[in-house]
Automatic annotation (TrEMBL):
<protein>
    <recommendedName>
        <fullName>Mitochondrial genome maintenance exonuclease 1</fullName>
        <ecNumber>3.1.-.-</ecNumber>
    </recommendedName>
</protein>
<dbReference type="GO" id="GO:0043504">
    <property type="term" value="P:mitochondrial DNA repair"/>
</dbReference>
<comment type="function">
    <text>Metal-dependent single-stranded DNA (ssDNA) exonuclease involved in mitochondrial genome maintenance. Has preference for 5'-3' exonuclease activity. Necessary for maintenance of proper 7S DNA levels. Probably involved in mitochondrial DNA (mtDNA) repair.</text>
</comment>
<dbReference type="InterPro" id="IPR038726">
    <property type="entry name" value="PDDEXK_AddAB-type"/>
</dbReference>
<dbReference type="GO" id="GO:0008297">
    <property type="term" value="F:single-stranded DNA exodeoxyribonuclease activity"/>
</dbReference>
<keyword id="KW-0227">DNA damage</keyword>
<dbReference type="GO" id="GO:0005739">
    <property type="term" value="C:mitochondrion"/>
</dbReference>
<keyword id="KW-0269">Exonuclease</keyword>
<feature type="active site">
    <location>
        <position position="263"/>
    </location>
</feature>
<comment type="similarity">
    <text>Belongs to the MGME1 family.</text>
</comment>
<keyword id="KW-0378">Hydrolase</keyword>
<feature type="domain" description="PD-(D/E)XK endonuclease-like">
    <location>
        <begin position="183"/>
        <end position="295"/>
    </location>
</feature>
<feature type="active site">
    <location>
        <position position="248"/>
    </location>
</feature>
<keyword id="KW-0540">Nuclease</keyword>
<feature type="active site">
    <location>
        <position position="261"/>
    </location>
</feature>
<keyword id="KW-0234">DNA repair</keyword>
<dbReference type="InterPro" id="IPR011604">
    <property type="entry name" value="PDDEXK-like_dom_sf"/>
</dbReference>
């Protein structure tokens, strides 16, 4: 019995081996695609395991990766550049502003208003504006002082404008251009002077020139607000600070006694800062009048009138006492700078 069972087992084993050999090729053909996919997945899995980027601290370099990959163009802004510079080079040194010098207190400070000046009684000839001739002396003029202490930035733009005009007009053409500008300014001042002078004095003056008719039309609305003219084209000298100048006009503008400076321009100058050093010039003249014994009055306000050749309404820039005091301090600093240079 035992032998019979053993033979049956051997027979079954042989038959199973034959069956396995018959079925094995078909099984391989069906499983081959799946084996390839499994191999591919296996290989992909191996690549992930050896990926070195996973070992990097991604949170630490998150901002750097975003700035590089978020946009094709540069993602830097002025703020990010400053931050990077601060990390690389440290905090920048604070640069002093350009107007810091003008905020200093002048070493030789003199008050704009002269507290010692005596106001004389009105004389019989007070209706005639004062007109003192400018004498040639060694004392520097306001114009000369301002020209020799012009700020570097302002000098740069002035020189650039000059070179541009020379390229357009040539040297001779530019010389003729500037000559005509000065001539028009002189004619304009002369025409205004004839308007303000009394009739018997104005008859001796030249009539209106066609070259300045546009400028005169430009200032008509300003002339209506001017009264009580006290000085015209008159020399002034600061007896303490030793500088001099030629004042265009001293008169009341809307009831306030002012030093008036007439300017001509080809370009609109609607703001006071567009007039560059003219406010300093006016402040210098105010201080000189207040410290000049030839004048029996004091001034605390200024007026700059910019007239236009095409007749467009002029721009009047009124300077109240506070503003005049500010520009007076700036003028004193420019005066000190000039004295140090000379």
């Amino acid at each position: 019995m035992l032998l019979i069972r053993m033979k049956l087992l051997q027979l079954l084993a042989r038959e199973s081996e034959k069956l396995e050999m018959l079925l094995q090729p078909r099984l391989y053909q069906k499983q081959l695609p799946y084996m390839r996919l499994a191999t591919s997945a296996c290989l992909h899995g191996k690549k992930k395991k050896v990926n070195s980027y996973e070992q990097v601290d991604q949170e630490k370099y998150k901002s750097l990766v975003c700035s590089v990959t978020s946009y094709k163009a540069s993602a830097q802004t002025p703020e990010t550049i400053f931050e990077e510079d601060s990390l690389l080079y440290g905090q920048p040194l604070k640069h002093s502003p350009s107007n810091k010098v003008e905020r200093k207190t002048p070493k030789n400070w003199v008050s704009l208003i002269n507290p010692k000046k005596r106001i004389l009684p009105v004389n019989s000839n007070s209706d005639r504006p004062m007109k003192i001739a400018l004498q040639k002396t060694q004392i520097p003029s306001v114009t000369r002082i301002l020209q020799q202490t012009i700020p570097p930035q302002q000098a740069f733009y002035l020189e650039r404008w000059k070179q541009k005009m020379i390229l357009e007009l040539g040297k001779d053409g530019f010389a003729e251009y500037t000559k005509n500008l000065f001539l028009q300014g002189e004619l304009f001042h002369a025409a205004l002077e004839s308007i303000f002078l009394p009739e018997e004095m104005a008859a001796k003056e030249q009539g209106e020139d066609s070259a300045v008719s546009g400028y005169l039309s430009s200032v008509q609305h300003v002339l209506k607000d001017i009264s009580e003219v006290k000085a015209l084209e008159s020399a002034v000298q600061h007896e303490t600070l030793q500088y001099l100048g030629l004042v265009d006009c001293v008169a009341k503008y809307r009831g306030q006694l002012c030093v008036i400076d007439w300017k001509t321009s080809e370009k609109p100058k609607p703001f006071l800062q567009n007039t560059f050093d003219n406010p300093l010039q006016v402040a210098a003249y105010i201080g000189a009048i207040n410290h000049d014994a030839n004048y029996d009055f004091q001034v605390s306000c200024g007026l700059i009138v910019v007239a236009y050749k095409d007749g467009c309404p002029a721009h009047p820039h009124f300077m109240d006492p506070d503003l005049c005091s500010q520009y007076w301090n700036k003028w004193l600093l420019r005066l000190e700078e000039y004295m140090d240079k000379n």
